[in-house]
Amino acid sequence: MQSLIENARAFPSSVAERRDDLAALADGQRPQALFIACSDSRVVPSLITGARPGEILELRTAGNIVPRHRSEADCGVGATLEFAVIALQVPNIVVCGHSCCDAVQGMVTDKQPPGMALFNRWLQRAEYHSRPAAPRKGAATQRHLETQLKHLRSYPCVARRLQERRLRLHGWFYEITSGEVFTYESRERMFRPL
């Protein structure tokens, strides 16, 4: 933790040459995308995309889960989606899954970690339905990612913006060991290198 504290203390001097760019962000934000990623510490959206401050709005959830819309349920994911789509009018939403995902592994094996009731209930909101094992690496996470893209479409603000052709959805799969990113091609229902 000490190294994190020291870096935070040194941050103002390390960005001194970009101070004007950062000051301009105080006037508001216009991110290019809402980036929904797993809360896994090995997945760093700005590192993967090269995004600078103000370029992406991040939403991090265990297993990059986007629960299906329910009008009677208050949910931080839904609130962030509404803010991104309505207030910020982001033109893109990226849902990024990754290899070695503990949350997806928990869904696939149906192993409930003891003492983690909230986490276990959260995993149920992913609505993961296992299919026969696929031979390709990362297949379970990729199937999970397809489901989360479907869930996104259940939100009225997302569905409306998609219909107006003012929003695009993207499914990305990040391979931790190689750094490769694959994109979901919905017509072919497969992932290809980005």
UniProtKB/TrEMBL annotation:
Q: Does the keyword Zinc apply?
A: yes
Q: What is its EC number?
A: 4.2.1.1
| InterPro entries reported in the protein's UniProt record | Carbonic_anhydrase, Carbonic_anhydrase_CS, Carbonic_anhydrase_sf
Q: Which cofactor does it need?
A: Zn(2+)
Domain of life according to the entry: Bacteria
Q: What keyword terms does UniProt attach to this protein?
A: Lyase, Metal-binding, Zinc
Family classification: Belongs to the beta-class carbonic anhydrase family.
> What's its job?
Catalyzes the reversible hydration of carbon dioxide to form bicarbonate.
Official protein name in the record: carbonic anhydrase
What phylogenetic lineage does the species belong to? Bacteria, Bacillati, Actinomycetota, Actinomycetes, Kitasatosporales
